[in-house]
Amino acid sequence: MNTEVLIVGAGPTGMTLANELQLAGVPAVVVDKLPKRSELSKAGGVQSRTLEALDQRGLLEPLLATGDYPISAGHFAGIPLSLEHARHRLPWRSVPQVAMERFLEQHLAAHGVHVRRGLDLTGLSQDDDGVTATFADGTVLRSRYLVAADGGHSTVRTLLGAAFPGRAGTVTMVAADVRLRGADAPVMHTSSKDGHWAQIFLLGTDPEGRPLRRLVLGGPGSLPRDVPVTEDEIRDGLRAVFGTRLELLELRYARRITNAARQAAQYRHGRVFLAGDAAHVHLPLGAQGMNTGMQDAINLGWKLAAVVRGQTPESLLDSYHAERHPVGEIVLRNVQAQSLLLDREGTRDPDVLATRELFTALLQQQDVQRYVGDLLSGMAVRYPIPGAGTHPLIGLPAPDPKLGSTRLHELLRSARGVLLDPAGEFGELAERWSDRVDRIGQCPGTEPMLVRPDGYVCWAGEPADLAAALRRWFGEPH
Ligand SMILES: Cc1cc2nc3c(=O)[nH]c(=O)nc-3n(C[C@H](O)[C@H](O)[C@H](O)COP(=O)(O)OP(=O)(O)OC[C@H]3O[C@@H](n4cnc5c(N)ncnc54)[C@H](O)[C@@H]3O)c2cc1C
Known about the structure:
InterPro entries: FAD-bd (IPR002938), FAD/NAD-bd_sf (IPR036188), RIFMO-like (IPR050641). It comes from Amycolatopsis ultiminotia. Keywords: FAD, Flavoprotein, Monooxygenase, Oxidoreductase. By secondary structure, the chain is of the alpha+beta class. It contains 13 helices and 24 strands. The chain folds into 3 domains: 236 residues, FAD/NAD(P)-binding domain (3-Layer(bba) Sandwich), CATH 3.50.50; 87 residues, Alpha-Beta Plaits (2-Layer Sandwich); 73 residues, Glutaredoxin, CATH 3.40.30.120. Strands 1, 2, 5, 6, 7, 8, 16 and 17 form an 8-stranded mixed β-sheet that branches. Strands 11-12-13-10-14 form a 5-stranded antiparallel β-sheet, with helices on one face. α12 links the parallel β21 and β22. α1 packs parallel to α4, α1 packs parallel to α7 and α7 packs antiparallel against α8. The longest helix has 24 residues. The mean pLDDT is 94. Flavin-adenine dinucleotide binds next to α1, β2 and α7. Flavin-adenine dinucleotide (FAD) binds next to α1, β2 and α7.
């Protein structure tokens, strides 16, 4: 074996996974076909649950210290969405993907994990003991497990012949990073009588402190994906929607995006796992793709580490598909709903316009704001925890109580499990898992709960079930 886990792809998914494995002390190699990190502008938003996950690993403060990342205004299909009522501690922020990737790569390097670049995976085979990966330059790497974090056009997925059902793109839109004169609101969605529409969000500021915005243009007559976007096309698109009200001052970057929507039927293929865009692709609406990929990695990382260390049986790895596939499905569905509400092809279909009007009214309701805010931010994710009972905390991200001078999230920095034991009744039992699980006995006012390394509650409530939960998630005691 060259390493325990080979991660193909050093995007946000691959690097988040590499960080989880380095925290657990499990040897991993990250490879990427690009000779240097991509500076292309893609994701602009990081959602509450991802911010919480970064905070749990002690990475949020250092990330936010690398730039000015304002809190974003929420929206659903461009309809402004107040996030005030969503269940979040850390509201959605405009952190560009470029900044996220730069930060993760530097953080990994500081911990001795260096992305091996210029390695283009071209071949893959697996047997009972491991996976053999071959690369265009003749390099061969053998690992016990391989994770495909190689994006929407995943070579690994193709080499596996993995089913990737869904729909091919039927229409394209233009996504661009721009400076504009005349744009004032943080979120704008405007359409013209002939079906052209534009969405504009504040992304942040450029080095001179001037507002940078993400512009999405759509409507009738979309061009094929591979046709380059021109500055004239953007000016024409703006004119079609806004007349002379808005003016393009600077175009920094543009690409065509499609409404293709696909999800891998299986996230696990023996010793190979699909994660991030390699497992699910959809229109980038509501800032979810990068976030979902990073959450896939956080779900998979500690499980791979536990199995590689021989602490838990291999079957723990099946819970990755069981937990993350339904999350991807929910993301795809809400993106499809948003894509319809956008009237993406500019049909001006009265049914679509009426539905959008109804949604605009519904999104004024606090309960709806909370529901949709939780959905987009990842806060609504609840993992199925078999045999864990019905306590309302089970399967949810653990609340972050203050435990004396520290917080639960600080305890999760080392990616170990945490047992909150306010009455001090589980000391003897927990001692048997003390190499994997930290027990906090001094936490008056909190509920007893067992928290997995990814921050999700896997036991609460019934004391008699605790030993079974410790066994299931952390393996046999030492
Ligand atoms: C315009 C736009 C706006 C977006 N906005 C948002 C947003 O606001 N919020 C959000 O959460 N998401 C957003 N997304 C989606 C987000 O960009 C993706 O979901 C994210 O990049 C997925 O990360 P990943 O690490 O899974 O894959 P990628 O970022 O695609 O990384 C895959 C990596 O694998 C490497 N690779 C590919 N093939 C091979 C190979 N054969 N061998 C070795 N390496 C290989 C690639 O070079 C690449 O570095 C947006 C996307 C676009 C296009």
